[in-house]
Amino acid sequence: LPGFPERLRHLLRLVVADRGVMLREGEDVAEGVQGGLVFATGALAAADAVLWATGAAPAAWLAESDLARDAAGFLRVEPTLQAEGQAGIFVAGDAASFTAQPLPKAGVYAVRQGPVLAANLRAAAEGRALAPFRPQRQALFLLSFGEGRAAGTRNGLVFAGRWVWHWKDWIDRRFMRRYQQGPA
To answer: What is the pTM of this model?
Structure first.
């Protein structure tokens, strides 16, 4: 979890170790093999199961397009969610890279881009002015540890416990209800 407070990363390491999971951070994997992983150093880590967390990556087809991309290969977008230099192409979510204000690849930003994207698609179709997406300065991140425990961070503050899991559960269920009930 680069970019997150060290205390949150420490809490996650404790939870992972408590569950008997071997965590290998910052090591290059050369290949996955039957029964484990081989690292670039040649070391083999035997495993019954492997969870390989690598972070967001751009879709391979983007590299073949003529669309403007950042150094990581994500599409550069204007504040209006239009692909840079392409008035008729809109981009949102992890595929988008804001050149003016780089954002982490996190669902909280993608979800908030949705209404702006929908409004801008309608506005573009009707020849009206487009609105900019204005991301919040700080986002709340909540991470469930399972078994009714979670941790979170916002503005550098880290908090953890059962109450955080209940809070996360309440937020998640409220969010999902919006999509299960249909339009009002």
So the answer is: 0.75
Name the nearest CA neighbour of 140 among 113, 119, 166, 167.
Answer: 167
161/158 Cα distance (integer angstroms): 11
Q: What is the pLDDT of residues 128-142, one digit of tens each?
A: 999 999 998 888 999
Look at residues 117, 152, 163 and name the one whose alpha carbon lies nearest to residue 12. 152
Report the b/e string of 58-84 with b at 16+ CB within 10 A. Answer: beeeeeeeebebbeeebbbbbbbbbbb
CA angle 142, 147, 151 (to 5 degrees): 25
Amino acid code (one letter) for 180: Q
CB burial class (10 A; 0-12, 13-18, 19+) of residue 169?
middle
Beta bridge partners, 36, equal: 33, 46
Q: Taking a C-beta distance cutoff of 8 angstroms, is the pair 32, 52 a contact?
A: yes
Task: For residue 119, give both structure tokens.
Answer: 């409004």
